[in-house]
Design brief:
139 residues; 6 helices
Length: 139
């Protein structure tokens, strides 16, 4: 298991709202994981926070551009994303998921970095030999 899977397994996700289907919640979770895995958390959070007041207009723009997008890209869940992003609570839930995954990923990476540093220090300590200096007497 690599660091990403460990981070995603231990992430503290927000609770699923009562009015949301399990498939929709899984769809948002998958989207949040993809954003964090590709290291796009900061731009995604920035974009979603600025677009929050216009989420309905953005969702309608997605409806308008839907035929063009589906011709260029294969996206089976495009209509479902459009329906989900019409609601402001969905944007807030997606933001919380991204932030949760990002914080867990940072925690896991710090732990892995500390572990690598400890292994490197142990390896260097085992390799270190006293330097031979020809001008000093050996005892």
């Amino acid at each position: 298991m690599n660091g990403f899977d460990v981070a995603f397994a231990a992430a503290r996700l927000p609770a699923k709202p009562d009015d949301m289907l399990d498939s929709d919640f899984a769809l948002l979770t998958d989207l949040a994981r993809k954003i964090v895995r590709r290291r796009l958390s900061v731009p995604a959070i920035f974009f979603l926070e600025t677009a929050k007041p216009l989420n309905y207009v953005g969702a309608q723009a997605m409806v308008f551009f839907g035929p063009f997008v589906q011709v260029l890209f294969e996206s089976p869940n495009y209509e479902r994303y459009t329906e989900l992003l019409e609601r402001r609570q969905t944007l807030e839930l997606l933001l919380q998921m991204i932030e949760g995954y990002e914080s867990e990923l940072v925690r896991v990476e710090k732990a892995e970095k500390a572990e690598r540093a400890a292994r490197k220090a142990a390896r260097n300590a085992a390799r270190r030999r006293p330097a031979w200096r020809f001008w000093q007497r050996r005892e």
